[in-house]
Design brief:
Radius of gyration: 42 Å
CATH class of one domain: Mainly Beta
Structural class: alpha+beta
Strand content: 25-35%
Order of helices and strands: HHHEEEEEEEEEEEEEEEEHE
Distance between the termini: 149 Å
CATH architecture of one domain: Beta Barrel
C-alpha cells in the first residue's frame, strides 16, 4: 500500500514536471515567435526610403548655374584674339552701326561710301567683271563703308579694307550712298599720341600704346570699318574696339584672324605710352568710350612714324 502511494505521488510529480516543461517551451517558442515578428517590423531599414527624398543632393545642381566661369573666357582673349574671336565671344558685342553724319564737305577724303546691298568693286571702271565683292555688312555685323579717294562721273575710287594696305578699287554710284564726315584721326607713333581733328580744330588728344619693334603698327591712311561694344570693360580690349582698314606688316595672320589692326581699350593701362601691342593702337578705357561716341564708321585714320 505504501509502495502504491509512492508510485502514485511519483507519477503525479512526473506529470507536473512534464506539464511545466511543456509550458516553459511553449512560452519560449511563443516569445521567440513574438520576437521574430517584432523583429520583422524592425524593417525600419525600409523606411530609410525617406533617405531617398533626401535627394537634397540633387538640388546641388545649383552648381551648374554658376556658369559665371564662362565670362572669364574673355580673360583669355588678351591681345591674342582676332576680331572674329571677339565677335564670337561677345555675340558681336552689340555692333555700333550708326549713320555716317553728313557734315560740310572739306575735301574728297571726307566722302564715305555706304554699301546699298552687295557691292562690286572693279580695278578699272571699264572692266566688265568685278575683281572684288563686298556684302552689305561686314563679317562682324557693321554696315560696310569705304573711304572715297576720288570721284569720276558715276564712279568712285575707294580705299578697300584688304591687303595690301592702301589698295583701291572702283565702285558704281548706284551701289553706294555718299555721306561725309569732317573728323579725322592722327596717330603719331614716335610721340605715342592720338589726336582727333574736326577740320583744323583739335577735338581730343590722348596717349596711346603702339606696336613693338617686332610687330609695329603699320603706317598709312586707313579708316574705321567696324565698331564693337565688347560687353567686357575689364577685358583685354576694354569696352569698345574699332576695326580699321589696315593690316599688320609683320603678321599675315593673328589668333585665327587676318592680322587686322584695331583701336581699342585695354585692361593694362600701364602699357599706355609704350610700344607694347602686336600692332593695334591702345587707349585708356574712358577715352575709347569718348571716341565711340565721337567717331562714325568711315572716319579716316592716319598712322605715321
Amino acid at each position: 500500500m505504501k509502495n502504491t502511494k509512492i508510485i502514485y505521488i511519483t507519477s503525479l510529480l512526473l506529470t507536473a514536471t512534464m506539464a511545466f516543461t511543456a509550458c516553459g517551451k511553449n512560452s519560449e517558442s511563443n516569445q521567440e515567435t513574438a520576437m521574430v515578428e517584432t523583429a520583422a517590423p524592425v524593417v525600419t531599414e525600409a523606411p530609410v526610403e525617406t533617405a531617398a527624398p533626401v535627394v537634397t543632393e540633387a538640388p546641388v545642381v545649383t552648381e551648374a548655374p554658376v556658369v559665371t566661369e564662362a565670362p572669364s573666357t574673355t580673360e583669355e582673349v588678351q591681345e591674342n584674339s582676332s576680331w572674329a574671336d571677339i565677335s564670337e565671344q561677345f555675340g558681336y558685342g552689340e555692333v555700333v552701326d550708326e549713320e555716317v553724319v553728313d557734315e560740310e564737305v572739306v575735301d574728297e577724303s571726307t566722302y564715305i561710301a555706304r554699301a546699298i546691298g552687295s557691292v562690286d568693286v572693279y580695278l578699272d571702271p571699264n572692266d566688265t567683271e568685278a575683281t572684288w565683292n563686298f556684302d552689305e555688312v561686314t563679317e562682324y555685323g557693321s554696315k560696310t563703308v569705304f573711304l572715297v579717294n576720288e570721284a569720276n562721273g558715276d564712279w568712285y575710287n575707294v580705299y578697300l579694307p584688304i591687303r595690301p594696305n592702301g589698295t583701291t578699287g572702283w565702285v558704281h554710284a548706284d551701289q553706294v550712298e555718299i555721306k561725309t564726315v569732317s573728323l579725322h584721326v592722327m596717330v603719331d607713333q614716335s610721340e605715342r599720341l592720338l589726336t582727333v581733328f574736326d577740320g583744323d580744330e583739335v577735338v581730343l588728344t590722348t596717349s596711346v600704346a603702339v606696336g613693338t619693334d617686332e610687330n609695329p603698327s603699320p603706317n598709312g591712311y586707313f579708316y574705321i570699318t567696324d565698331k564693337l561694344l565688347t560687353g567686357n570693360p575689364s577685358g583685354a580690349y576694354g569696352p569698345v574696339a574699332f576695326g580699321i582698314s589696315g593690316f599688320s606688316d609683320t603678321l599675315s595672320s593673328f589668333a585665327g584672324g587676318p592680322g587686322q589692326i584695331g583701336v581699342h581699350g585695354t585692361n593694362n593701362p600701364d602699357s599706355i605710352g609704350n610700344a607694347a601691342s602686336h600692332g593695334c593702337i591702345r587707349v585708356d578705357n574712358e577715352v575709347i568710350l569718348d571716341l565711340s561716341e565721337l567717331l562714325p564708321l568711315g572716319t579716316p585714320i592716319t598712322i605715321q612714324a
